[in-house]
Target: DUF2785 domain-containing protein
Amino acid sequence: MARLCFDKKAGRMAFIAHGSDLLAAAAAHPKITTAQLQQALDVVANVLAQQKKPFLDDEEERLAMIVLRVSQNPNHATGSISRFFNETDIIRWTDYTEHPHNNEAYYRVSSWKRLMMTLYFMAPSMQPTLLPLVTKYFQKMGYLD
Model:
């Protein structure tokens, strides 16, 4: 269960969880603009880029809900979801490759994998885009040949 009060150790994480819930709800609104939907995707990428500790309360799943709601909104730009996945994947792997012994880089790429796996199961229409990206994670981490 998500933390409902501010905690010096988990305060930022609780903000990410509840902020994600709010942004997912906003992304589902029929009056949200294409530009605002893109900003919602940018928020997800930025949260992952700034992650310094492992998430504690299913923040990855909650961030994934933003992407899901953007994808379900008829106002989202064609190709924006695929572009989001491809661009974010490149950024996450570049970060990890450049900092292979940095725990923060590992947390970011691991959270990215978890976000993608969540969407793989929640949004079957995204599976063709996500399967190669998730498979790449398992290959690069040595789980697959």
Remarks:
- DSSP finds six helices and no strands in the chain.
- Helices lie at 11-27, 34-50, 59-72, 80-98, 103-122, 127-140.
- Residues 11-140 form one domain.
